[in-house]
From TrEMBL:
Name of one Pfam family that matches: PK_Tyr_Ser-Thr
Entry's transmembrane regions: none
Ranges of residues in domain Protein kinase: 34-266
Gene that encodes it: Cni-nipi-4
Protein name in UniProt: Protein kinase domain-containing protein
Length: 266
């Protein structure tokens, strides 16, 4: 099937070709990625659905691998950003980072790229705090040991340490930019047994993308920066990790609860 490239994609054609070459080992045809109706989340780049990837075998429909499928918003900048994130993920290998599994071949000729990511059935840490802790009666609430929470914090810190040890194409340290409980996924809804993985690897949001949940994690040097897209450095990740620690130790309390973006900046 041949689908013409959107006119607005032409200025980015050279970069798209580079991304396609570098991601060639992950490319699969669109029929090998399945997207369910169940939306499990939304990020700065697009929507995340539950789905699956089928291996290239004769009996492939009997061997579907459950995945999270991320589809970009129909905006050129978001489409490119999603593919850039996929490329970064493809070069990272750590047990506490979500793995890239596949990229749709059509991602480089249509307006909305689609990538398949590792699926963790336990959901996000944010959802765990809401549905297993805060919405439960005291008698039904699962007890949480400090050592279990420290284990989660340690695993996320190791993922962050690994990211900061890697360099991008310009020789700069990689950063994460989105260290939030809703971006930390767990293998099962039991903090005593679960492993955690840091997901939604990408750049920190630009000034136009600031929303209260993101701003609540941002360091002052980012919030008060005069640049439209302030540089995000490893030390900014460390600040965000500090807010993440506070959120975990308060079992999901929201930083700067009910404060507006302007109030937080003050």
């Amino acid at each position: 099937m041949c689908i013409p490239m959107s006119d607005s994609m032409y200025p980015h054609q050279k970069r798209l070709k580079q991304l396609e070459r570098e991601l060639k080992n992950y490319l699969i045809d669109e029929e090998s990625i399945e997207v369910d109706d169940y939306q499990i989340g939304q990020t700065a780049d697009g929507f995340i659905f539950r789905g699956g990837v089928f291996p290239k075998t004769r009996n492939r429909f009997n061997a579907k691998v459950t995945t999270a499928v991320k589809i970009s918003f129909p905006i050129v900048g978001k489409s490119i950003s999603l593919l850039e994130d996929a490329l970064r993920l493809s070069k990272l290998d750590h047990p506490n980072l979500i793995r890239l599994l596949a990229v749709s071949q059509l991602s480089f000729s249509v307006f909305r790229p689609m990538i398949a990511l590792e699926w963790l059935p336990g959901g996000t840490l944010a959802d765990y705090f809401v549905y297993k802790i805060r919405e439960k009666d005291d008698s039904d609430r699962s007890p949480i040991q400090l050592k279990d929470m420290l284990s989660i914090l340690y695993q996320v810190s190791q993922a962050l340490k690994y990211i900061h040890s890697q360099l991008d194409e310009f020789g700069q340290e990689l950063t994460h930019g989105r260290i939030l409980t809703r971006n930390v996924l767990i293998t099962e809804p039991d903090l005593k047994k679960c492993e955690v993985k840091l997901g939604d690897f990408g750049e920190a949001p630009s000034g136009l993308e600031y929303t209260t949940p993101i701003v609540a994690y941002m360091p002052p040097e980012i919030l008060c920066c005069a640049e439209r897209v302030p540089p995000h450095r490893p030390e900014n990740d460390v600040w965000m990790f500090g807010v993440f620690i506070w959120e975990c130790l308060t079992l999901g309390a929201q930083p700067h609860f009910r404060k507006s973006v302007e109030d937080i900046k003050k």
